[in-house]
């Protein structure tokens, strides 16, 4: 299989939902199914933080959520855990600046999707050089979903990356909602990545996912 084309990746980033069992009191599979019904275009399994599953339990949940994503034709990305991604034949991996080196990850995963977090132009250029298929840039706005999140940068960081000549797909992350999605897409993001805007939305989160999809669609056509 060939590497994903940049244009296809940009489409896939429209509504990128991230979740682990720690992000909802409801069963993760129920939340994910309802979010997929609302139009989620990419999913990341991020089993991390207090109460996160480990070992065989983590793998079993990953396989259950992967099965759901497959039924909807939505790629399944694993956060941090390259070995798990390979063991279950996930569609890709997302790593940050403090995780396994992106170039090593690319060598291990071949043509699978590689996402890399970047906070500035230097990190973005290094990620492109290492073979990233997309960049996750944030936090754009304050977030309470990541324990060690950096200070919010605002949408200007997206403009700076584009002005510096970064053309690969970018997804904005951190405090994104349907109300501010337009602002980040207009600043240079191809899509939005969220935890709480979907995982903490009133049940079922189908409408919340649909509202994000509509906000990104409307911003892209302007
Ligand atoms: C799409 C996307 N962007 C950024 C991140 C953050 O990755 P990282 O900095 O490695 O932090 P953790 O998520 O691992 O805590 C992400 N996961 N996804
Ligand atoms: C997983 C993650 N990474 C971030 C980064 O800045 O790299 S912010 C974040 C959490 C995003 O959750 P919410 O949509 O609830 O703000
Ligand atoms: Mg990480």
UniProtKB/TrEMBL annotation:
4-amino-2-methyl-5-(diphosphooxymethyl)pyrimidine binds at residues 44-48, 79, 117, 146. Residues 15-198 form the Thiamine phosphate synthase/TenI domain. The keyword Lipid metabolism does not apply. It is an enzyme of class 2 (transferase). The gene is thiE. PANTHER family: THIAMINE-PHOSPHATE PYROPHOSPHORYLASE (PTHR20857), THIAMINE-PHOSPHATE SYNTHASE (PTHR20857:SF15). Its cofactor is Mg(2+). Pathway: Cofactor biosynthesis; thiamine diphosphate biosynthesis; thiamine phosphate from 4-amino-2-methyl-5-diphosphomethylpyrimidine and 4-methyl-5-(2-phosphoethyl)-thiazole: step 1/1. Its EC number is 2.5.1.3. It catalyses: 2-(2-carboxy-4-methylthiazol-5-yl)ethyl phosphate + 4-amino-2-methyl-5-(diphosphooxymethyl)pyrimidine + 2 H(+) = thiamine phosphate + CO2 + diphosphate; 2-[(2R,5Z)-2-carboxy-4-methylthiazol-5(2H)-ylidene]ethyl phosphate + 4-amino-2-methyl-5-(diphosphooxymethyl)pyrimidine + 2 H(+) = thiamine phosphate + CO2 + diphosphate; 4-methyl-5-(2-phosphooxyethyl)-thiazole + 4-amino-2-methyl-5-(diphosphooxymethyl)pyrimidine + H(+) = thiamine phosphate + diphosphate. Binds 1 Mg(2+) ion per subunit. 2-[(2R,5Z)-2-carboxy-4-methylthiazol-5(2H)-ylidene]ethyl phosphate binds at residues 143-145, 175, 195-196. This is Thiamine-phosphate synthase. InterPro entries: Aldolase_TIM (IPR013785), ThiamineP_synth_sf (IPR036206), ThiamineP_synth_TenI (IPR022998), TMP_synthase (IPR034291).
């Amino acid at each position: 299989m060939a590497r994903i084309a940049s244009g296809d990746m940009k489409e896939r980033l429209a509504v990128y939902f991230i979740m682990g069992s720690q992000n909802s009191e409801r069963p993760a599979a129920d939340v994910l199914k309802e979010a997929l019904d609302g139009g989620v275009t990419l999913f990341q399994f991020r089993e991390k933080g207090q109460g996160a599953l480990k070992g065989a339990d983590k793998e079993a949940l990953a396989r259950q959520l992967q099965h759901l994503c497959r039924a909807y034709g939505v790629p399944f990305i694993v956060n941090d855990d390259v070995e798990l991604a390979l063991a279950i034949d996930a569609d890709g991996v997302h790593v940050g600046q403090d995780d396994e080196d992106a170039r090593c990850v690319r060598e291990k995963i071949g043509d699978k999707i590689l996402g890399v977090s970047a906070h500035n132009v230097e990190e973005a250029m290094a990620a492109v050089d290492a073979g990233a298929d997309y960049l996750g840039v944030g936090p754009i706005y304050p977030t309470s979903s990541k324990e060690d999140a950096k200070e919010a940068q605002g949408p200007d960081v997206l403009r700076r990356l584009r002005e510096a000549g970064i053309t690969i797909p970018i997804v904005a992350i951190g405090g994104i909602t349907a109300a501010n999605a337009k602002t980040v897409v207009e600043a240079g993001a191809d899509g939005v990545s969220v935890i709480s805007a979907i995982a903490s939305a009133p049940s079922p989160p189908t409408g919340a996912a649909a509202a994000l999809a509509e906000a990104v669609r409307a911003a892209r056509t302007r």
